[in-house]
Specification:
By secondary structure, this protein is α+β, with helices and mostly antiparallel strands. It has a single domain, classed as Cytochrome p450 (Orthogonal Bundle), CATH 1.10.630. It contains 17 helices and twelve strands. It has a five-stranded mixed beta sheet. A three-stranded antiparallel beta sheet has the order 4-12-9. The chain has a two-stranded antiparallel ribbon with strand order 6-7. The longest helix is centred in the middle third of the chain and has 24 residues. The structure holds protoporphyrin IX containing FE. The site of protoporphyrin IX containing FE (HEM) has 30 residues, from helix 12, helix 13 and helix 17.
Length: 411
Amino acid sequence: MPCPALPDGFDFTDPDVLHHRVPLPEFAELRRAEPVRWIPQSGNVAGFQDEGYWAVTRHADVKYVSTHPELFSSTLNTAIIRFNEHIERDAIDAQRLILLNMDPPEHTRVRQIVQRVFTPRAIRALEERLRTRALNIAASARDRSGPFDFVTEVACELPLQAIAELIGIPQDDRAKIFDWSNKMIAYDDPEYAITEEVGQESATELIAYAMNMAADRRACPAKDIVSALVAAEGEGNLRSDEFGFFVLMLAVAGNETTRNAITHGMHAFLTHPEQWELYKRERPATAAEEIVRWATPVVSFQRTATQDTELGGKRIKKGERVGIFYASANHDPEVFEDPDAFDITRDPNPHLGFGGGGPHYCLGKSLAVLEIDLIFNAVADAMPGLRLVGNPRRLRSAWINGVKELQVSTG
Ligand code: HEM
């Protein structure tokens, strides 16, 4: 069946689309009429020198692609659905050193090592320190007179601190780590006036910093997580360069995602006051997952078909790219009752905000849920009367549902 309501040439990865809104009506139209649809691209806009990609919009199909890495590779064209038209192929290929863009067996080996960082015990060990940080962040925002930007004053800080705590970055070095992380993730939006070169330089500096850290610990092991990952050579440990790319991945994967979940969550609460009242009264444990479903900070990733295959009644050819749209899956009425309602008591909540299952499922999920819980508990206690002062200013991006600024006030 054709898709009458989808404008000709509409591309879900066009950064101008997410700059204005998440295209929920267009996703709904595709799910209804053509759940797997070819989106043509001309002029190398995404950097892959090809003709476009398949948009996969139903919850069941996003799960299917995610859980069949033998059919859908993360490495052939990486998981990033759009770079820019000027990128060199070498620069795309260099991204394959990051866990997110690996296929088995390399992925299995590296993931087995790095998941030591994310054991329930390791996350629990961070909880009290992160709680104190969350309380301090909320208290200093409360003490500001007049309106303030929720993104910079509240949402940014905890995700950065959490990653620094997780891998034991010394307090004195955190400012420069934060600066590199912010520059790396900001260069898609012209407003930040950060060139791609500066973004690349920051990535290189961060990797070099982490590699030095690894070399130090190898020479002089301590009782910390870096030593556990790198201290002995061999199959069960990371090389220094692998550790460098792991830290780079955390700085990208763990920062902007959680920051945007927190910002969208606050905006959702302030535009759904009955949910905010309910939260303040009952603090339901289900709230964080609903915030991630509602926000879906990562709108999409991609895979590349390793062989001819079929999906949603369409023939996918070997080498074609397949975009998995988590934001669409998270509004699929076949799975979610009243999917457009923000309901912090939703249970069960099988959203795909952390991925569609399978080998790449978000490693930082428990940490992210903990951070979201801690920050909203702290904000609800410190600033129960918080109110919106302006509309969110959105990030221009091909695949991140981002907010740059959200003006709020306690008075
Ligand atoms: C609300 C916050 C977050 C969201 C929405 C999110 C989302 C995602 C998604 C969609 C994936 C890809 C899943 C797939 O391809 O199947 C992913 C992977 C990953 N995430 Fe998260 N993430 C969040 C927070 C974090 C945090 C806090 C960390 C760590 C500090 C983290 C570390 C990772 C890593 C290392 C991977 C790659 C796993 C792999 O390829 O095996 N994430 N995340």
